[in-house]
Amino acid sequence: MLVDGKWTAEWHPVQATDAKGGFVRQVSGFRNWVTPDDSAGPTGEGGFKAEAGRYHLYVALICPWASRTLIGRKLKKLEDVISVSVVEPALAAEGWKFGTYPGSNLDTLNGATYMHQIYTSADPHYTGRATVPVLWDKERKTIVNNESADILRMLNSGFGDLADDTFDFYPEPLRDQIDALNDRIYPRLNNGVYRAGFATTQLAYEEAFADVFSMLDELEDRLSAGGPYLFGSSLTEADIRLFVTLVRFDAAYFGLFKCNLRRIADYPALNAYLHRILAVPGVADTVNIDHIKQGYYSIKALNPNGIVPVGPDLPGLYPVELATIRPSA
Ligand SMILES: N[C@@H](CCC(=O)N[C@@H](CS)C(=O)NCC(=O)O)C(=O)O
């Protein structure tokens, strides 16, 4: 991580923990908002007007939080308005790295090698983890925001007429209910899998494990009783936020994070829902199971030898054919 703008040598991928050994996620540091008229958003300062070509997203395809923003950009048809760079899937010794791994890019915009250099360009004294996603302002040469929940809302309504209005991820009448559901799903499931995976005590792991599967059971019941989306016929940000966790679950969380009571494939309604969202035009383009597997299984603290499992076979998502991977005799 960065301490006063300097990369600390003893960087460690196991994140902060609380007194019980539970994983604690860092609070995001840049919280300004792009708005149609340049005014300030719910947090931070103004001066970030929606303009085509002005903003850039830095993402990792392994990362569920970054993927929220990629889906938002796709479905709001903002691809020509906001450019994107994708880091390599594996966390290097200095964190996220730009490179030539298939599906990744070099940073042609700022010429950085590592994501932490983007942070110190914005704030030479930055202290904190250099996380993705980052929404970068090419004009002011700074980070607008590095919190995916905020960026997803900006993509929904901050870009005004530059965005397509087929989807409204945060419709006025549903806002309280969406907030309430997000507040349940985030700690138990989205972050719950990380709490299980990065727990440093049996107790913290088991508490997280119970949260993950009780939440999945609850969502299975909810989707069996109605649908096609969490709030009926319209796809909202709650669906995007749930989808990014579900699509990683069987490939990474089940194995690496020891969330292995059941797979998403074992939940009929959740599995159908996962594939329903995957079939929404544009969504599948944001999902890269190879990056997801390579990225999670590169976390040395959890997988010291770095061996990436061949399976599981994920029909319709990541089919694995033994014949194509078995070494010939
Ligand atoms: N609150 C942030 C969290 C982002 C986050 O934790 N991203 C992870 C990748 S999934 C990251 O960049 N980790 C690098 C690190 O912690 O050093 C958000 O939702 O945008």
TrEMBL record:
Any Pfam family the entry gives: GST_C_2
InterPro entries: Glutathione-S-Trfase_C-like, Glutathione-S-Trfase_C_sf, Glutathione_S-Trfase, Glutathione_S-Trfase_N, GST_Omega-like_C, GST_Omega/GSH, Thioredoxin-like_sf
Domain GST C-terminal, residue spans: 171-299
Domain of life according to the entry: Bacteria
PANTHER family per record: GLUTATHIONE S-TRANSFERASE OMEGA-LIKE 1-RELATED (PTHR32419:SF6), GLUTATHIONYL-HYDROQUINONE REDUCTASE (PTHR32419)
Protein name (database record): Glutathione S-transferase family protein
